[in-house]
Amino acid sequence: MRLLLVEDNRVLADWLSRTLRKQQYAVDWVENGADADFVLRTETYDLVLLDLALPKLGGHEVLRRLRERGNGTPVIVLTADNTTRSRVTELDHGADDYVAKPFEVEELEARIRVLLRRSAHVANPQVACGALVYHGGSREFTLAGKPLTLTPRERTVLEVLILKVGATVSKSVLGQSLPSLEDGVSADAIEIYVHRLRKKLEGSGATIVTLRGLGYLLRQVHDDA
């Protein structure tokens, strides 16, 4: 899952980014509202963590523009203003949740999980393809009932594929699911992750098919294929 953190406090942003990445989230960080507005127009995210007191463009305006474009990406507002009036105002303006600073990271992680579950593309928290099973609540994979060991980027790629099992996913979509503001993700890198995943899925009844010029497709291998 790909998150955008919009926060001008560099110490807080660095700590929160590292903490969330340990939970297997791909996190991009920008430190002002103008940059946030730009990347939200050009990139795709599963959830936004948005500070309100931002330079160049306030968080209120970033949120307003996002919703005016018809973008329903879940947004959690992070702010030091914990008054009832402020909470109601932001929720009325399109925020999905509100977390006051200072906060416990465990609470924030729980709120992130709730919103991601609500916006998931599938209603069933478990998705299966052959012996491969994705557990939506924990974001873990099992293979024949045993935990499947994956790197963070392998997990993200496989997560995108299994949530669209049976459908073609382009390289650009897979690239957007991984951190791009930090170090970029090339088409060659996507091929490497897919190659590694194919080896880990051997004999599982699930395979990743390459569709030249289109992308990749995760499907079940039938015995009579």
TrEMBL record:
The keyword Transcription applies. GO terms for biological process: regulation of DNA-templated transcription. The modification 4-aspartylphosphate is found at residue 51. Residues 124-220 form the OmpR/PhoB-type domain. GO terms for cellular component: cytosol; protein-DNA complex. Residues 124-220 bind DNA. GO terms for molecular function: phosphorelay response regulator activity; transcription cis-regulatory region binding. Pfam families: Response_reg, Trans_reg_C. Keywords: DNA-binding, Phosphoprotein, Transcription, Transcription regulation, Two-component regulatory system. This is Response regulator.
